[in-house]
Amino acid sequence: MKMCELCEEQAKKSRSGKPHQNLSKVDGPRLFKGHNKRSFEEQDYQCQICQARFTHSTNKNDHAWTLWRG
Length: 70
Ligand SMILES: [Zn+2]
Hints:
The protein is mainly β. It has one domain. It is built from one helix and four strands. The protein has one helix at residues 5-11, and strands at residues 23-33, 39-47, 53-57, 65-68. Strands 1-2-3-4 form a four-stranded antiparallel β-sheet, with helices on one face. A hairpin with a 5-residue loop joins strand 1 (23-33) and strand 2 (39-47). The structure holds zinc ion. Zinc ion binds next to helix 1.
């Protein structure tokens, strides 16, 4: 499936940034307790236009935005 333009832009955001206007949250945030008391959260989003799915992570060692291709 072809991604919409907003998702194309979203996938390029390596640093944190806001989800685009047509991304809706899927379920609630997941909290992870990492080593050295470094916890982080992940939140899934799905685009209402093209159905692309992203996961946003606050883990500094990971990409902020991960695109899940179908
Ligand atoms: Zn989209």
